[in-house]
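Sequence, please.
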């Protein structure tokens, strides 16, 4: 494993954790990694690790002009993707000896696409988990290398679940790489149709007052994430930011009272 060469596609805290585990727990040297990522403030932790480690990296998309030549010249054995934000085309995957593998934050084939964690909370799932799968041209449809499941806490929110998904997913990165490099290992096809959610904020981030209270509570928690917009509620032409079910109840109470008195809350 440590003697193989890797193209690493990552983003954000999850991308940093995946790369850190590859370098520490898997003992893969920096010279054996070629990385692709993004130049943004949210990606600072990964960029810092790349720079401190001396890993060669590019900020152009791996599907962009020039990337194919870079990957071919590097001569990688495996491409590893951790929360990378764009499709890796077959024209690139075909240049890597053992293709590519990706970490997805759900139990595939359920919750393909994005915002998998928040949607699991909104849908009040009892459990979720992670999947390491073979990359194909279609998002999240490749055969499974491994899965790990865990229960959702009673008051799970978007941030706590994200932390669990990242910790669990990157914990298994060494095993996923080992299986992908093992020519005798046969990944298992995904079973069933599953579900898919597009790259957009669930329900536009807006609470529907007609929802049952349990769904409202789950929705508020699902969108709770430091530095990100919380759930919003539009009522009587007014916009409210809602961070908890208790705050939601108070807003409804105030608006109802104002309606009865004929004044603005």
């Amino acid at each position: 494993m440590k003697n193989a060469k890797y193209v690493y596609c990552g983003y954000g805290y999850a991308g940093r954790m995946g790369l850190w585990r590859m370098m520490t727990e898997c003992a893969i040297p920096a010279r054996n990694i070629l990385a692709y990522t993004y130049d943004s403030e949210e990606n600072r932790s990964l960029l810092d690790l790349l720079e401190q480690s001396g890993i060669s990296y590019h900020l152009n998309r791996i599907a962009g002009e020039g990337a194919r030549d870079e990957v071919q010249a590097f001569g990688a054995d495996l491409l590893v993707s951790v929360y990378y934000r764009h499709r890796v085309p077959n024209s690139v995957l075909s240049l890597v000896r053992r293709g590519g593998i990706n970490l997805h934050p759900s139990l595939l084939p359920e919750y393909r696409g994005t915002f998998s964690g928040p949607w699991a909370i909104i849908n009040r799932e009892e459990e979720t988990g992670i999947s390491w799968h073979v990359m194909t041209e279609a998002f999240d449809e490749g055969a499974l290398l491994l899965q790990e499941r865990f229960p959702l806490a009673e008051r799970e929110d978007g941030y706590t679940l994200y932390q669990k998904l990242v910790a669990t997913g990157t914990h298994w990165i060494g095993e996923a790489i080992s299986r992908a490099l093992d020519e005798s290992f046969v990944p298992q096809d995904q079973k069933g149709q599953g579900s898919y959610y597009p790259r957009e904020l669930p329900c536009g981030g807006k609470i529907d007052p007609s929802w049952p209270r349990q769904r409202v509570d789950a929705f508020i928690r699902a969108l709770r994430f430091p530095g990100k917009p919380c759930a919003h509620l539009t009522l009587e032409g007014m916009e409210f930011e809602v961070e908890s079910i208790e705050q939601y109840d108070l807003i409804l109470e105030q608006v109802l009272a104002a309606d009865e008195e004929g004044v603005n809350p």
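The longest strand covers residues 127-134.
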